[in-house]
């Protein structure tokens, strides 16, 4: 009974709300990722790596079970740079509020 009431409520809400408020947007690039084919070389490489012995894996990837030591870390940082993402400026409060309440379900949860 509760399930049917909920379905009826959301059906009525969806009829009167703009499409963007009642329906979820697809992930960007989701269709291209689904339709893309995986190159055979990549799948062959994955299968080979999955079948390797543990010691062979350490040798192939030039690492060891204990992880990198201080000298290896220094060399990797000199070669590749710091492993950091650029800092992102925080959104203004009104943008954050809009993003939070763009979905009508969040308004119901707040009330």
UniProtKB/TrEMBL annotation:
Give GO MF terms, alphabetically: transmembrane transporter activity
Please give the superkingdom of this protein's source.
Bacteria
Q: InterPro entries, per this entry?
A: ATPase_P-typ_cation-transptr_N, ATPase_P-typ_TM_dom_sf
> What region holds the Cation-transporting P-type ATPase N-terminal domain?
48-109
SUPFAM superfamilies in UniProt: Calcium ATPase, transmembrane domain M
Q: How is this protein named in the record?
A: Magnesium-translocating P-type ATPase
């Amino acid at each position: 009974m509760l399930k049917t009431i909920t379905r009826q409520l959301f059906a009525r809400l969806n009829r009167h709300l703009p499409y963007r408020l009642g329906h979820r947007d697809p992930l960007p690039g989701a269709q291209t990722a689904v339709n893309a084919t995986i190159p055979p070389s990549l799948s062959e490489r994955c299968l080979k790596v999955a079948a390797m012995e543990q010691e062979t894996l350490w040798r192939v990837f030039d690492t060891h079970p204990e992880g990198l030591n201080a000298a290896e870390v220094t060399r990797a940082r000199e070669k590749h740079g710091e492993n950091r993402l650029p800092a992102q400026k925080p959104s203004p409060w009104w943008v954050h509020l809009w993003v939070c309440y763009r979905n009508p379900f969040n308004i119901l949860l707040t009330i």
